[in-house]
Amino acid sequence: MAYHIGRVLTYASLGAIFGLLGRQVYIAGFQRWFSIVLGVLVLSLLVQYLNNKRRLQPSVFSKLQILVQQWMGQLLKDSRPASFLLLGMANGLLPCGMVYLAIAGALSTNQLIDGIAFMTAFGLGTFPAMLTLSLFGFMASISVRNSIKKLTPFIIAAMGILLILRGLNMGIPYISPVLEASRGAAVNCH
Q: CA-CA distance, 66 to 150, in Å (whole number)?
């Protein structure tokens, strides 16, 4: 449990950072276009991934991954409960396509608390799968794992399309709500 709590804490922290960045984009009045550009970027990366059949990861993330993995290796040698919490927190920092998508979702929110809630929900949503994998992963055959892996591009495509639809202001609740161009001016009562 400490491991999973650590993961969710890291995701919530990332949600705070990217929710705050999304808030700045919203205040600047670029929320709609930012959502569209983010959706196009997600779909472009998906197409590039499908064409190359390899993971797309900037070198900065590769270096981060090496550092985090080294830290995780040290934590695995320690059996104290705090080490499991830190191990989970470190795992939340590992570069991962699904985490990138969740960060894009948090970035497209226009409130700090919404970014935190989005990423916390992502972390809690992954909890059943991560727990099942850790308890019964050895029982899943390679074909079952490959079948699950084949769903990932569809999930990525859906996220990209939703981001684009969100920016189009079509008035569809929860999918493409009407977004304000920017915050209204402050009212001066004097």
A: 26
d(CA 36, CA 93): 26
Segments of the chain scoring below 70 in pLDDT: 27-28, 53-59, 61, 138, 179-190
CA 168 to chain centre: 22
Compute the distance between CA of residue 56 and CA of residue 49 in angstroms, rounded to an integer. 6
Q: In the chain, what are the domain boundaries?
A: 2-167
State the pTM of this model.
Answer: 0.70
Number of Cβ atoms within 10 Å of the Cβ of 60:
9
Q: Are 140 and 130 in contact (CB under 8 A)?
A: no
Cα–Cα dist 120/99, whole Å: 12
Strand partners, 172: 176
The contacts of residue 98 (CB under 8 Å, 6+ apart) are: 126, 152, 155
Q: How far apart are the first and last CA of the chain?
A: 55
Residues 168 and 177: their CA atoms lie apart, in Å, by 9
What confidence tens digit (pLDDT) does each residue in 139-181 have? 777 887 788 778 888 888 988 898 888 888 888 887 777 766 5
Please give the sequence-ordered ranges of beta strands (E in DSSP) within the chain, or none if there are none.
none
